[in-house]
Queue: 2 jobs
Job 1
Amino acid sequence: MAVLRWGSASHEGRLRAQNEDHAHAGEGLFVVADGMGGHLAGEIASEMAVDRLNERLPITGENTRDELVDAITEANTEIYQGSIDDADRAGMGTTVTAIAVVVDPHDGEAFAVANVGDSRSYVLRHGRLRQLTIDHSFVQELVAEGAITRDEARTHPRRNIVTRALGIEPYVRVDSWTMPIIRGDRFVLCSDGLVDEITDEAITEILAEHTDDPEAAAQALVDAANEAGGRDNITVVVV
Ligand code: MG
């Protein structure tokens, strides 16, 4: 397997009492999930998503992109069923973005990337940060139509509306693809609490200041989002 290094950090932010984000960073699997729903339900939904992926994608070196998508689909079913069975959990849901080391029939060992909702995965290659995932959100649709700019989306009053999430409907469409593993690439997985507070340029600069230590990079990104306002829970995984 490719040799990876990673780190993660999470904070409830400066306005929220609870942290409804969950993350996983371990050999071959990296996940960020941002839960929604009252009475701790969001926290439960994001944890269910992370747990299910962890369980379904053991460290075998033989996982596939289909298995990653299946695990996300299963998490959707589980969270949806949970919200029906338990009145306290009605309406719970979560975003998810994940990167897994998989075996691709064409590329051999590769990364599979997947997402539902507005948590993001980025790649930093040759000093340039590129967003891999497309947000499933109301403001992303406005950006795609050209009605607002990416920068306006970050402060738009309706930026929190997601158009796809796990647990909301019985079936969910998962965006996914594979990409080759390239030495020196760095990945950032994050909840919207990061990107609503700091720009992609700021993320790039902070990564440049912490090239050797992914844990320190993740912590510095969370700190920067808190300094910029910390209006939401902030979770970052750096690989
Ligand atoms: Mg959030």
Job 2
Amino acid sequence: MSYILVTGGAGYIGSHTVIELVNHGYKVVIVDNLCNSSYDAVARIEYIVKQHVPFFNVDLRDSDALDKVFKQYDIQGVIHFAALKAVGESTKIPLQYYDNNIGGTISLLNVMKANSVKTVVFSSSATVYGDATRFENMIPIPEHCPNDPTNPYGKTKYMIEQILKDIHTADNQWRSAILRYFNPIGAHPSGLLGEDPLGIPNNLLPYLAQVAIGRRDKLSIFGNDYDSHDGTPIRDYIHVVDLAKGHISALNYLNKLETGEGLFREWNLGTGKGSTVFDVYHAFCKAVGRELPYEVAGRRGGDVLNLTANATRANTELKWEATLSVEDACKDLWKWTTENPFGFNIDNYKWQVFNDDKSDYSNRLHTVSFANGFKVSLANRGALLQSVVKNGTSVVCGFQDPSRYIEKSNPFFGTTVGRVANRIGGAKFELNGNTYQLAANEGANTLHGGFHGYDKQTFFGPVAKQEKNGDKVVNTFLFKYEDKDGNNGFPGDVECVIKYTVDDESVGIEFIGSHLETSPAEATVINLTNHSYFNISGTDSTDGTVVKAITNTQLEVDDSLLPTGKFVPTHTDITKPTKIGPDCAFDYCFVVNEAGSGIDTRSDELKPVLEATHPNTNIKLVAATTDPAFQLYTGTGIDTPGFKPRSGFCVENSRFVNAINVPEWRKQVIVKRGETYGSKAKYTFVDA
Ligand code: NAD
Ligand code: UD1
């Protein structure tokens, strides 16, 4: 399988382009040293495209490391975004700009040559034209406009173009598409990706967005005495998604050349339409819904009246055209800004790689900490809850070593369980006249989704966000896994999203299973839960924990732990405080609502169903759910190094066990194509 290598793919334009590449069927590898970006952008790319995108934290100037990437993947071509790009900064630290941009490109081209990769799409800029108004009839600017960059940044772009030209002259099999961008603006319409400028933004829209969100007082408009309809300068603002698509068109164009045929050619990527600063200001105010403060300041040095593209060459040759407006871009930018007011930076959240191979970012451990010491860690594998620390006490069983999660003896610590939690009797069920035979992984039954259940999957994401309301800080983490038709024998394509909502005393979990419109099956079966083992004793045993539930009704089970269909009381009345231990153990499905539930319970009451305390600590756990049942399992079977029987207990929200095989219960778990399964659970840790 061949790949497109995207340098700078974690950055603003690169991340949007990676999405378009994947959407157009390309496989992508990203190389980025994260000097002006965040890996979170890559995590969000994967979340959006629902595909793994290999990522390498490599500086382009490190030729050896770069070469390893070329050796590991069959690279067909390169889109080269990686560069430093701030005009003002480049005049202060020109050497770093030349070193990074030109040095990085030379290293890249050497590695490409050594690996016989001769196709490159290069991020150039309209800045290579300098002041195009110095000539007559050069506005809108055509590609043949003479170049005269006016700052070190622009000069790096100009020089790289020249290098690519010379390489093509020397070896005419090289294919170089030079894309000269005009003013990229906007963000991904999903609200998940956008520009995340460090420090004070230089560019118009990022600055204006920070004014709107309250991070800056007012916009300074640099001069209103230009010869335009309102006195402010004219630029060609292009939506970043249109720009990203231009790269696909360029790449397709290069790929369609005859075998052995090379090319060196420049294309302007712009809309061909000019907008003034006030035009953009008004469009953004409209998106925000209010007038934003501004003042007119003096002209900014280096600015010129009009830089609008003549994009005819790209329109005709690449068959590419910008279709989105400045208004669209403003709307998308505002969505990105309000949903991510500090970009990817969340002040109480950190992550680390949670794989033995530290260069493999697919499984990461995400830790969120609060001022009161409450701390929660989640991992991509199984979208699992690895740790919760309350008052200095670890209250959830988890492994420090990521490889422990893969061991057979791991009793599902902290993990999401699906597609069907708990047991399916006889490892089979009937649906719409079809019999589905599953793999039996527990005697004759299927337990917790089978051999390749959600606990064994690496979820994409997370999309990590934070909201602050006065002193209250709430963090959310969205993880996604696409469970394809046929996995573990289940019918239908299911997109599973696990949303954690964490504040300074609780962990909420939302379980969302969408049976996709495009699924080949008419209906499927879903029952999702979380398998955390809680321990609020402060020791390695939960013995002596006092639990109290709102129900004492359980599903009666037979010898293979399958429900008989009857509701019966439990051996000990747990609606009264009950001390768990060797003589008082539970592994029962308790019924909160005998009538069962519909498929999506998320808007139902989040009912506290069980509370637990332990005399050793001052911690009370309250477990709540919207589901009609929960499994209370006191961990008799735990047998893994470092943990022993009853080191933790589970309160797993769920539908009734084996519901799919019991006529009166089936509707709790059958999800038709286009429908969404949903439920919520919440674990709150308060001072007792
Ligand atoms: P960006 O800073 O968001 O993205 C550039 C990425 O390259 C970053 O993720 C950065 O970490 C990475 N990078 C930089 N130097 C690197 C190195 N030596 N090794 C590996 N990675 C490195 O910028 P962007 O706005 O997405 O711009 C992308 C490209 O487009 C740049 O080449 C820029 O010059 C060009 N461009 C941008 C604009 C614009 O307005 N944004 C306009 C014209 C051209
Ligand atoms: C700048 C870079 C250009 C780069 C482009 C990328 C310069 C001289 N040029 O272009 O190389 O390719 O960014 O987007 O830096 N404005 C204000 N107030 C502000 C910011 C900007 O009035 O706070 C005005 C500017 O005067 C300009 C317009 O907004 O007329 C756009 O400015 P900006 O976003 O910085 O882009 P350019 O200057 O066009």
